[in-house]
Amino acid sequence: MVEIIENKDITSFTTFGIPVKARYFAEYSSERELLALSRKEEFMNNEVLHIGGGSNLLFLEDFGGLVLHSAIKGIKEYRKDDETVYAIAGAGEKWTDFVDWCLERNLAGVENLAHIPGEAGPSALENVGAYGVVAKDVIHAVACF
Ligand SMILES: Cc1cc2nc3c(=O)[nH]c(=O)nc-3n(C[C@H](O)[C@H](O)[C@H](O)COP(=O)(O)OP(=O)(O)OC[C@H]3O[C@@H](n4cnc5c(N)ncnc54)[C@H](O)[C@@H]3O)c2cc1C
Predict the structure, then answer these.
(1) Cα separation, 25 vs 6, whole angstroms
(2) 50: CA distance to ligand 1 center in Å?
(3) Predicted confidence (pLDDT) per residue in 118-137, tens digit
(4) Ligand 1 center to 90 CA (angstroms)
(5) Nearest C-alpha to atom 13 of ligand 1 is from which residue?
């Protein structure tokens, strides 16, 4: 069962590295664990902030609510047609690892987005872009909770 940690130092979850704590912190590895978390008192009675690689977040003070982090991993091909290969990536995968995974298989489309910091989940939310390519043009669907 997923654990909620109190007074967790989350500095390592940010790229600025400025010392910061969360009153509550939980990391889940499956949708089932996230569902279980959503029924906890700490989830229902506090502000909830989902964090990824922390490259687009700057904490000015400790966070008084619940910080969530996805550890949902895995990258796999799940469908293919004449022109397109569809791959699925866990929200907790590093975005650039996903780009590398595509390049290793000669799958074109995301190469301009190499080395953008952060995780796969936030890349969709932030609609990352570089050199004329934007995530919305290459992301087919996002599973949301
Ligand atoms: C040096 C540097 C270079 C960068 N270059 C680029 C660039 O070229 N192009 C570009 O577009 N961006 C760039 N960025 C911005 C950054 O890479 C993106 O915004 C990235 O998507 C942030 O990912 P993260 O995992 O660090 O998200 P975080 O900073 O942790 O979170 C960003 C947002 O996503 C939310 N979030 C986090 N995880 C989830 C989740 N699983 N589900 C839903 N919401 C979630 C957070 O609440 C927050 O609102 C750069 C940043 C840095 C520091």
Answers:
(1) 6
(2) 11
(3) 999 999 999 999 999 999 99
(4) 15
(5) 116
Considering only the top CATH level, what class is 75-138? alpha beta
Rounded Cα distance between 46 and 69, Å, is 16
The b-or-e profile of 42-79 (16+ CB within 10 A means b, else e) is bbeebeeeebbbbeebebeeebeebbbbbebeeeeeee
Q: Pick from 40, 67, 72: which is nearest to 54 by CA?
A: 67
Domain ranges for the chain, please list them: 5-70, 75-138
| 32-59 residue pLDDT tens | 999 999 999 999 999 999 999 999 999 9
Half-sphere exposure of 31 (CA within 13 A, CB side): 4
The answer to whether 139 and 124 are in contact (CB under 8 A) is yes
From atom 11 of ligand 1, which residue's Cα is the shortest distance away? Answer: 128
CATH number for the domain running over 5-70: 3.30.43.10
